[in-house]
Amino acid sequence: MEITGANHEELADWFATVKAQFDGLAPQLTDVIVPVKTGAVVALLFETDRSPFVVRNPVFGQQGGGPVQFEVPWRENTSTRTATRSELIKLLSPLQKLPDFAILSATLNAEESEFKQIDNSKQLRWSLETEIYVVPRAESRVVIPYHKLSTSFEIGEGPIKTTPMGTSIVLSRETRMLGIDTGFIRTTESELIIDGPGKIRLNASAVTPVFEILSSPVRVNLVLEPAGAEVAAYLSASLTNIPATGFAVAKWKLG
Length: 255
Prior knowledge:
This protein is mainly beta. It has two domains: 8-96, no CATH class; 98-254, Immunoglobulin-like (Sandwich), CATH 2.60.40. The protein has helices at residues 11-19, 85-97, 173-177; strands spanning 28-36, 39-47, 55-56, 70-71, 73-76, 79-82, 100-112, 123-135, 142-145, 149-155, 162-171, 185-187, 191-194, 198-209, 218-224, 233-242, 248-254. The strands form five sheets. Strands 7-8-14-11-10-15-16-17 form an eight-stranded antiparallel beta barrel. Strands 9-13-12 form a three-stranded antiparallel beta sheet, with no helix packed on it.
């Protein structure tokens, strides 16, 4: 069987029609282009961590379209049906236990690294600083182990879009001044402990080969999974390219 290839430029138009079938939130799409001898294969990854998703009935209001305007589809074996009440509760109840996280600020810098790869080619050193406001939704303590934190960023449309970053948590200056780090929010060598609302600063870093698309927009993705939780909190933000300062060769900022 011969692979005829795929036109990557058509993906945005196609996914726009797919998103239109959802009421509000749609699954996030990540595409990876794999070159082959006869063209290219496009792999599509649909992230479903923010379920449930509500889809529209495209024939609602038309003759024979039925009374249902929206529904939540539920995959069972090889068939799809409407989710039941108990299944929706099963999906939503873990989300109620997650704290409410909001990204207040984010800055990503790219600097030329003093270290080079084995073939003597240049590398970029990336540093991300984010400030996050957190509000627990339940009265119980929330503990987020550092090994349950992950950060990545996406830039451009190359075959490898997402780059993972090493992550660390520190308390913001405002939080320390308010004395919250000895009350509502504390950090240890291995976890973040949240007993009430406050700000935290999440820092991340990575080293990559030099990109040729440093003027492209960037999306940063954060995952915070509390200990004992059935689901994790997924945060993302789009950063805009701004003039670089200091030793940075490129810089992005939220807002």
